[in-house]
Amino acid sequence: MSKSENHHLSDYARRVWVTVGIVVITMLLLLAIWFSLNVLLMVFAGLLVTLFFSIPTNYLHQHSPLSRGLSLLVVMLVFLALLVGFFLNFALGMNQEFERLLNILPDSWSSLEDAIRQYPLGSRIIDRFEQFSNQFSMPSDEIRSLSSRLTTVFSSALGAFLNVFAVVLIGLFVLIEPDSYKKGVIVLVTPARRDEARGFLDLVYHKLTWWLVGRLISMSVIGLLFGLGLWGLGVPMALSLGILAGLLSFIPYLGPVLAAIPALLVAFTQGPTTMLYVGLLYLAIQFLESNIVTPLVQRKAVSIPPALLLVVQLWLGIYTGILGLLLAEPLIVMSMLIVQRFYVKGWLEDKKPTEAKEEILQEQEEN
């Protein structure tokens, strides 16, 4: 065998081993991400907490003579005062209202079930539903004992509270010195691409900021309109149901549906006509939020296909629980930015980093 053939074989073997090494490292990274997915989601949630507080902090710093440190202190004191005021003046009464809500729901379900059973088709639907529930060890008696079950769940929620506490701590630690963490990430990139990495982090911050602003406005609109509408219709616990609707609307598509169920059941205690009016109110508010409020705010953020969002929500919800449902949308926003910036613009269209960033921003504003 000639020297050229030996050199060709050695070069081929080297490329094979490099390819195998890349595949193995990729698989190991994917396995590490999979087994630490909950921890990574908590870190990402902490970064969203940082973003939440950085928006008013940066605004106050830019529009006042205060330094960023003093601006952050003012924001934290105001937020703490609002939180204390909420618990002192409102949360204690809310606890009683939610207890009333949990007591009403089983009776509402029983009344609705009796009303549906008056029709032959409705009776068959209820029977099929009970058969389906029995297959999963969820008899209808468990629905009627929802109040006691939820009380047990809330009393044993120490683990969830600790997770929330850890997420808030992560967010606050990053918020105190955000530049040091940003520099730490950029240092891991080769010097020739550090400006590109810095520009991409700024792009992610811009998009996630507008996404968060859009979600907060949407939640406020839904909670306010729903609460006022229920109060106008004379539905009990309108304030509690409005706040519940606003909080659950943080989860796109699935959250508003979950919020409508208790409102419809409580409205049914006032009569089928009230329940119909509440359903129409819910549809009107969702139409207003989906077609007017959200498009006006989210046009500066990444537009997410509804089917993709539902698939990711279900996937993360199954494997990571409520945390995955809450973070599905911002994770898609960041993933779509990565694909747009590095694959579509950076590789397929071979754009320069500054050109790619400007085109992504321009395309979103045009949409």
Describe the structure.
The protein is built from 15 helices and no strands. With 367 residues, it is an all-alpha fold. The protein is globular, with a radius of gyration of 26 Å. The termini are far apart.
Short description:
With 367 residues, this protein is an all-alpha fold.
Low-confidence stretches: 135-144
Distance between the termini: 63 Å
Count up the helices: 15
Q: What is the averaged pLDDT score?
A: 76
| Residues in helices, as a percent range | over 70%
Strand content: under 5%
Number of strands: 0
Q: Which structural class fits the helix and strand makeup?
A: mainly alpha
- Based on Cα principal axes, name the global outline: globular
- The ordered string of helix (H) and strand (E) elements is HHHHHHHHHHHHHHH
Radius of gyration: 26 Å
What characterizes the major β-sheet?
none
What's the structural blueprint in terms of helices and strands?
Blueprint: H1 3-35, H2 37-62, H3 68-116, H4 120-135, H5 140-144, H6 146-155, H7 158-176, H8 178-187, H9 194-232, H10 238-248, H11 254-268, H12 272-298, H13 306-320, H14 322-348, H15 353-366
Key phrases:
mainly alpha, 15 helices, 367 residues
